[in-house]
Specification:
With 269 residues, the chain is of the alpha+beta class. The protein contains 7 helices and 14 strands. The chain has one domain: 4-Layer Sandwich (CNF1/YfiH-like putative cysteine hydrolases), CATH 3.60.140. α4 packs parallel to α6. The structure holds zinc ion. The site of zinc ion has 6 residues, from loops.
Length: 269
């Protein structure tokens, strides 16, 4: 299903019907509802992009209040466009906002209630996962490299292997990000997808036009989740494209990198 817009305590968020039904606190943020100024206006959640730290902290305070989660127990990813999914515990609480992130990981997974996992995007996709039966949550950042590496499938693998989740219980939500309408690439992207997924990748890659291709990263990530055993009816997908809506969302391509970041957050309660 499509994500739904909610305004919680003044902060506009997109939420997943699947995850909402499961009772997990979560949300995908936009540019709106914060206090940052200039190129960071207004809800910048990126801590290392040159924005005033006090404003970033106030933005987090607002988002945490909206989701009713503990601001001292946020855990940030350390994104490097890889496929590492890190298991995090309460010992990691505060990494990112209060202290340094001491790992590289584009995905986070936990079974600790109260810990809020945070991943970032600005065209790149953010994906949230939850098994409400085993009470396990995960958050993933997937640009084209992470998509080619199958990071969403890595997260499911770890949920099953290390936490005892069953694939059919896993719910997923793919957030706003650059969509097939706008994600124009050179041949390296379709090539990487074909190498990783074979013929199954073909429906998500547009025809070549003067050396360029349009690629559907949301569809490819849903395919990875499907191949891992997550049921299609348990995957919500935002149709919103960050490059089509640069007033609402941070788009790396639109801003040429002069920007803040949106985030996807998830917390077991
Ligand atoms: Zn678009």
């Amino acid at each position: 299903m499509e994500l739904v817009q909610q305004v919680l305590k003044g902060v506009p968020l997109r939420v997943s019907p699947c995850l909402t039904k499961a009772g997990v606190a979560h949300g995908f943020t936009s540019r709106l509802g914060g206090v940052s100024e200039g190129i960071y206006a207004s809800l910048n959640l990126g801590g290392n992009r040159g924005d005033d730290p006090g404003r970033v902290r106030e933005n987090y305070r607002r988002v945490c209040e909206a989701l009713e989660v503990d601001m001292g127990k946020l855990v940030f990813s350390g994104q490097v466009h890889g496929d590492v999914v890190r298991r995090v515990t309460l010992a990691d609480g505060g990494k990112g906002l209060d202290r340094k992130v001491d790992y590289d990981a584009d995905g986070l997974v936990t079974d600790e209630p109260g810990l809020t996992l945070v991943v970032f995007g600005a065209d790149c996709l953010t994906i949230l996962l939850c098994d409400p039966e085993r009470k396990v949550a995960a958050a993933v950042h997937a640009g084209w490299r992470g998509t080619a590496l199958g990071i969403a499938a890595r997260a499911v693998e770890i949920m099953v292997r290390d936490y005892g989740c069953r694939e059919k219980d896993i719910l997923a939500a793919i957030g706003p990000g650059i969509s097939k309408c706008c994600f124009e690439t050179g041949p390296e992207v379709p090539l990487a997808m074909k190498e990783a997924l074979g013929e199954e990748a073909f429906p998500y890659i547009g025809p070549e036009r003067t050396g360029k291709y349009k690629v559907d990263l949301k569809g490819l990530n849903a395919l990875w989740l499907n191949r891992s055993g997550v049921e299609t009816t348990n995957i919500d997908i935002s149709s919103e494209c960050t490059l089509c809506a640069p007033e609402t969302y941070w788009s790396h391509r639109y801003t040429k990198g002069e920007r803040g970041s949106q985030a996807a957050l998830i917390c077991l309660k």
